[in-house]
Each structure stands twice: as C-alpha cells, then as structure tokens.
Write a structure and sequence with these properties.
seven-stranded mixed beta sheet; seven-stranded antiparallel beta sheet; alpha/beta
C-alpha cells in the first residue's frame, strides 16, 4: 500500500471533530500551527462549524475524497464510519481508539482490499514536520525545532511522547505511533523511511515483530542505504508455543535470538530510552566513529576512575596511552595519573593549554577513533564561570577542525546539558552526549555499526546421508536417538565417540572387549531424549561383571517405563574421563530460523546460562568470537599447569555442526551436543552425547 496519503496527506478529514478539548481539536490546532497547506474537513452532524472551519455531517458530504480520515470516535461507531470512508474513496485512516480487534477481521480486510493503510488502532497518530502535516494527538505548541532527520516508529504511544519530549539535539522527519497495527505495520513504515530522503536514522520501539522475513529484509536494505535502525524491543514476539525437547531450545530464547538477528543485519539494539536517545544524538554528528577506540579527556581524577569502571564493565575500548604519547602529554601537562585513558588533563592546572594538548595527543593515536571531552554544565548558572560554557565548545570545535575524527562533549549524567552549548555544538556539526555509560555506549554502538561486516562463511557441502534419509526410512520420527544422531553428524565431520549399538548382554560384552574397558552403557531409544534423568546411563564399567550388572539394572528400569520404548536398545561406548566439558547446539526460532549456541558443557550450561549465540549462516570468525565470549575460553586455556585445549578442533567441530544444520535446515528443529570433551592441543575433541530433533510435519 502506498503510505504517502497516511504519512504526508494533502487533505485531512476528522470524524468526531468538536470544539471541545480533545484529540480532534488538538489535530486541527496543530495543523494550523505547523503550517498545513491542504484542506481540513471536520465531520460531525452536530455542528455546522468547528474551530471556524465548515463542519460536514458525514463523510459522504465531503467535496472530495480525503487523503486520510482521522477517527476520533468511540468503538461502537467505528465499523460504519470506516465503511463510509472506504465508500467515499478515502486513501488512508488513523484510528485512535483501542479495541479494533473486537470489530473483527472484516473491517481490517475491507481496508486492505481497498488498499487503505491504517495507523492504529490504539495509537497517537502521525507527526510529519518536514511535510508540515500531522494527525498526532498532542497539540503542536511551537513547530520550531521539530523538523530533523530522525524517523520514529513506536508501537507505544507513551514512548512516542517520551522521545518527542526532548528535541534539544535532534528533530524528527516522521514520528509514527503505530498502535496495534491492524493493517499497517512497523515494517511498512520502516520500508517507507528507508526511501525517505529526509530521514538519516530510524528509531523503533517494538513489542511485537510481525512479518519477520520482511522485517529482516528491511534491516538489510536500511544497512545498504547507510541508515542505522535503532531498535528497543520489549515483550514477546508473535509465535506459536511449542514443547522444547533439547537444552538448546530452552537456552536460545526469543530475546537472545532477536538480539543476534539485529546484530547479523546491522541494526543497533538498545535496552532503554536513555541509550536510544544517546545513539540518535551521536548520529547527528557530521563524522561517525570508524573504530571502537575511544579517548575520554577529563579534568578530574575521580571522574576518570568512575568512567573507567563503567567503561570496563560495559566492555568499551579505552586504549591506554603509549609510552611515546604519555611522554608528549607530560611534556606540557605535567604528571598524568593512571594509564591515560580516561585522560586526567588537569596536570599543572593550566586548563586552557592542557585540555587542547591532551586532545591533540590522542588525536594522533592510531588506536583512537573518537575523542570525548567530559565537562558538566547545567542550564541554570548558579555555580561556575559563565564564560566557560562556550569556552568548552570553542576548544572542542578547534580540536575537531584539526582532526578527521569525531569529537564529543559529554556530561557525566544523561539528559543534563546546557542549551547554548548544545546549540553551538550542533551548528558546528558536533554532538553533546550524556552519561558515562549511555553516552560512551552510544559511540561504541555506532562504531560497531560502521565496521565492515565479515563475509558469510562458505559452508562445506556433504554428499553422504542426510536427515531426510533417516526420516524417510522411519516416517513420523521427531527425536533421533543418540546412536543415529552421531552417525549422521559424523558424516559431516563432527567427531564422535567409538561405540556399538547392541541388544543383548552377549553383544554388549563383545563390543566392550573390542572397545577396551572401561566403557559406558546407555539405553538408546527415540522415545528417550534425556537418559541421565531416568538413570539409564552407567559409566566407568571396568569388566564383564560390572557391565552385566549395569545391563540388568538398565533393562529393569526400561521395563518400568510407561509407555515402554518401542525401539529399545543399548549403546556400549568408550569411557572418556578427561577433557574440558563443552556444549554446542542448534535451535530453530519460529520467526527467524536456525541459530548456533556454544558454552560450558554438562549441567553447568543450564545453571550458569553462560553461552554465545549466532544466527546461521555463520560469518567468518563467528565461531572464534563465540568461544571468546564465554567462560569456556578460560577453561580451554592453560590453567595451573594443565595444558591448553585443542581449540582448533573445537572450532572445526562447531563449523561442521553449522554445516550439518544448514544442509538439513528444512527438516531440523534442534540439535544438542552435550558434553563435548576437548583434549589438550593436538588430541582433538569428541562428542560424548548427541540428540537431534526433527521438525514436525506441521512445521516442516
């Protein structure tokens, strides 16, 4: 549907218009304040005029079909009025009231059939300062400073109010309070803003992601257009509930998957409105950071320590001064405390000389991509020298003019700034940021956005047995037992334990002797996803006698199961006592597809939930980064005389698992490899237990 009639209408009808204070009156007054040039048609059979405009008794009485109809009426009146709007040829609609779902799919279907985009229901409407139009509920008191380059799409009206309540550092190209999105959805507005020349950056507050494939495609298109999409996601996405069979399915929850989707498609995720506001502010700068190294210059040792604590906790990159840089700095400033980042430039107390020199020193560092001067100045001048307000701006502007790197003025708390400073910085193409966590985090988020993504890893194709072959041989299978799972995975290069499937104690003894004691005995069945919980695993069996006792115990426990497994058998497996225990798995998100998880193995993964996640297909370097992100990295390194583990073999194992998942994606829901035992360098790793869960026919 074309959105122009909705977001920048040439004519507006307001059903339920009245002189009383309320949304309809606010829209009429706002249209006058913002300079709307088109006709406004109040509609209400009770009045002849509203706000000195001719008021029409019905939509059918209008002199023309309006671009957009604003419905400022109660729910019971909506169905008939929407039908009249469609009949009159209206090209778009805004529905403020909630409860549109109660009106039924018939009305939404009528609008879709007519090609009529609808904002709402349960929304605040749309504000478009660049087109001088508005259907937004709040009254525009002063249009000065409204227009800018930030496109806002929010499923919450309150969040729209919050973002529009502080326009000191940026204005908006379009603000959409999308509401419940009965017809027109976030992705529709997103696609519109990508093509909108007035929009430089897009901010979205999202409760529900509808049409995920279109959403992901829009993120890719925004990235290709150089327009960051800043996403604050809350709540749960639309999806069918399902039973989770594997550990991976329980770990790879919706929020973690969505975060990885955003990362994979170069969107910028934030966790609150403070973080969002600071990212939008950073995007107003003429220059954006092209690396993660940040230098923070201050005039306070205590503030420097606080900033360093916050930056370290947030994983920000504040490179220390090199010996040469430190020597050059101390030549002018005097003794510097700490490692020079944050850079306490107070030194000998000559503020006017020391701060510019400090910025000059870090500007010459190849490890620094952005320079921040931290100085607090409030709007009310009860304390401090009044001339210092613009002196800080002058120093920063002069430093930026001698540099190709972005420079920022930062207050130590978010939202605290001096309007004269902010305005002067904006005019110079610089930015005021706030909050040692939020402001510096915003620079880092934009820096990561600007970094070139690594190419998608080339998957190794295998010609051997596939998951579809197993499923075809036994229709209706969902859980694939350990033995069959390992045979399938080994064909893709996943290293698995030596083992034999047996049915009798005689076969078990023969297999154990061939493998060599000690061994492990397990029950194996498609009907038993997790054996340990049922006491169906016996380890470190040293001889025939111990094996026979374990075989009898496991057989008895199998007999007591209700229902009994239809395909019961046993697995005699080599005993692997040593090695670092790791975990890897695949999980399918109903909206966004397959992801790879990695972390510490055994039961630790469920207790610590310390794991890394990536969407498939992987990019070059993803597996190495996943290992580094988890505590497993420390376990794999040399610890207290224990040799380092064979990390290269773990990397190869995870990449082989990803290859299997991609090649069998159509039929796969989940995979668990837990534990993986990683041995010292040169000895590889091995999968001790495995589980594959196929897609059910309904979702296949």
């Amino acid at each position: 549907m074309p959105l122009d009639p909705l977001v920048k209408p040439r004519s507006i009808a307001i059903v339920g218009a009245t002189d009383r204070v309320g949304p309809a009156r606010s829209v009429i007054e706002s249209l006058g304040a913002i300079g709307f040039a088109g006709p406004i048609y109040p509609v209400n059979p009770k009045y002849q005029t509203v706000r000195n405009l001719v008021c029409y008794p019905s939509l059918t009485d209008l002199p023309e079909a309006p671009d957009v109809v604003v419905f400022s009426i109660r729910k019971p009146l909506l169905p008939e009025q929407v039908r009249l709007a469609v009949k009159r040829g209206a090209r778009a609609a805004v529905i403020y009231d909630a409860g549109f779902a109660e009106l039924g799919e018939e009305i939404a279907g009528l609008c879709r059939e007519a090609g009529m985009p609808v904002c709402g229901p349960n929304c605040m409407g749309i504000l478009n300062p660049t087109a001088r139009s508005t259907t937004y509920k709040q009254t525009v008191m002063d249009p000065t400073g409204l227009a800018g380059n930030v496109g806002i799409v929010s499923q919450s009206g309150s969040v729209c109010i919050a973002l529009l309540s502080d326009l000191r550092r940026y204005g908006v190209s379009l603000s959409v309070s999308a509401g419940n999105e009965a017809v027109t959805r976030t992705v529709d507005y997103l696609e519109y803003l990508i093509d909108d020349s007035a929009t430089k950056v897009i901010a979205t507050f999202t409760e529900t992601v509808r049409e995920p494939e279109r959403y992901v495609a829009a993120l890719d298109r925004a990235a290709a257009a150089g327009k960051p999409v800043v996403v604050l996601k809350v709540g749960r996405a639309e999806r069918t509930q399902r039973a989770i069979t594997s550990h991976t399915g329980g770990l790879a929850g919706e929020s973690r998957v969505f975060s990885e989707v955003l990362k994979a498609h170069r969107a910028i995720e934030v966790s609150d409105l403070d973080e969002m506001s600071e990212v939008l502010a950073v995007c107003q700068g003429e220059r954006w950071p092209r690396g993660r190294g940040i230098s923070v210059v201050t005039g306070s040792g205590g503030l420097a320590e606080m900033i360093l604590d916050n930056a370290t906790a947030a994983g920000l990159d504040l490179p220390a001064l090199s010996p040469a840089e430190r020597a050059e700095a101390e030549r002018v400033i005097g003794r510097i405390t700490g490692d020079g980042n944050p850079f306490d430039a107070w030194g000998n107390g000559n503020y006017a000389v020391n701060v510019p020199h400090a910025m000059s020193v870090v500007n010459d560092s190849e490890r620094i991509a952005a320079i921040v001067y931290c100085a607090d100045t409030g709007n009310d001048g009860q304390l401090g020298h009044p001339g210092r307000v613009l002196e800080n701006v002058k120093m920063l502007v002069e430093a930026a003019q001698r540099s190709h790197k972005p420079h920022y003025l930062m207050s130590s708390r978010p939202g605290v700034m001096n309007l004269r400073q902010a305005k002067a910085l904006r005019e110079a193409g610089l930015v005021q940021i706030g909050g040692t966590r939020q402001g510096l985090g915003a620079i880092d988020r934009v820096a990561r956005y600007m970094m070139e993504q690594r190419p998608v890893r080339t998957s190794t194709s295998r010609a051997g047995a596939q998951l579809a072959d197993l499923l075809a041989a036994r229709p209706g299978r969902r859980t694939i037992n350990e033995y069959d799972s390992k045979r399938l995975l080994s064909g893709f290069g996943v290293p698995v334990t030596r083992e034999s499937r047996v049915a009798t104690i005689a076969e078990a003894k023969s297999a154990a002797r061939e493998l060599g004691y000690p061994v492990v005995l397990k029950a194996v069945s498609d009907d038993i996803a997790h054996k340990t919980e049922l006491g169906l695993v016996a380890v470190n069996l040293k001889n025939d006698e111990e094996l026979a006792r374990a075989f009898a115990q496991l057989s008895a426990r199998l007999d007591r199961l209700d229902p009994r497994p239809s395909d019961r058998a046993f697995l005699v497996q080599e005993f692997v006592p040593d090695g670092v225990e790791l975990f890897a798995g695949i999980a399918r998100d109903p909206d966004f597809g397959l992801s790879l998880a990695f972390g510490m193995g055994g039961t630790a993964i469920e207790v610590t939930r310390d794991f890394a996640l990536r969407m498939l297909p992987l990019r070059e370097g993803d597996v190495e980064a996943m290992i580094a992100e988890t505590r497993a990295a420390a376990l794999l390194a040399s610890v207290r005389g224990r040799p380092a583990a064979d990390v290269e073999s773990v990397i190869a194992c995870l990449e082989a698992l990803a290859d299997f998942a991609q090649q069998n994606a159509d039929g796969l829901d989940e995979v668990d490899l837990n534990p993986i035992k990683a041995f010292p360098q040169g000895r590889g790793c091995v999968i001790v237990d495995a589980l594959i869960v196929a897609r059910s026919p309904a979702r296949g």
